[in-house]
Amino acid sequence: MAGSKKKFYYTVAKTLHWFAAFIITFNLLSGWRLGGFPLNQKEVLIMIHSGIGVTIFALMIFRWWWRKTRKLYTPPGWKKRPSMLLQWIFYPLLLIQPVIGVIQVAYIDYEVRAFGFINFSALAADDAKLHGLFLQLHGQTAWLLIALVLLHGLDRSRSAFI
Fold first, then answer.
1. What are phi and psi of 114, to 5 degrees?
2. Domain residue spans of the chain
3. CA 72 to CA 10: how far, in whole Å?
4. Share of the chain above pLDDT 90, in %
5. Which of 41, 52, 58, 103 has its Cα between 20 and 30 A from that of 96?
6. CB–CB of 88/132 below 8 Å?
7. In sequence order, what are the beta bridge partners of 114?
8. Quick one: which of 72, 95, 100, 77 has its CA closest to 10?
9. What Cα–Cα distance (Å) separates residue 8 from each residue in 20, 61, 62, 64, 151?
10. Which tens digits make up the pLDDT trace of 48-93?
11. What pLDDT does residue 152 have?
């Protein structure tokens, strides 16, 4: 692969990484505040939150495709490097988290439309028990993602000093 082409591929990958990091962090941190708002404001905020979740899902699929088709970040012995393993743990979790969120709002008792038109709440009948179960699972996965983001940040900052 030509040097300038490879540099371009890595530049795109880094840009996608930081864009994903920004919107993932925003959604993880903003999700905790959703329960404290009045219903009319909460409905709007959940629509924004779910739209960003769909964006994260699509972005993670695109990032995976971009890295895979251009053979980026696959140095010899990558399975032995904790930082590389940690990055690959993110991909399934960041795909599962929006799916859990969609299932959760499918059982909610009011309308949730991602981007204002994808009606996730119409996917299933209202069910408070199932909504509560998936809400809890969504929250636990968020905590796991936050811990992994912090671990990833510590690992990357450690390697910057070595």
1. -65, 135
2. 3-161
3. 7
4. 63
5. 41
6. no
7. 118
8. 72
9. 18, 19, 16, 16, 28
10. 999 999 999 999 999 999 988 998 876 666 556 676 777 778 889 9
11. 83
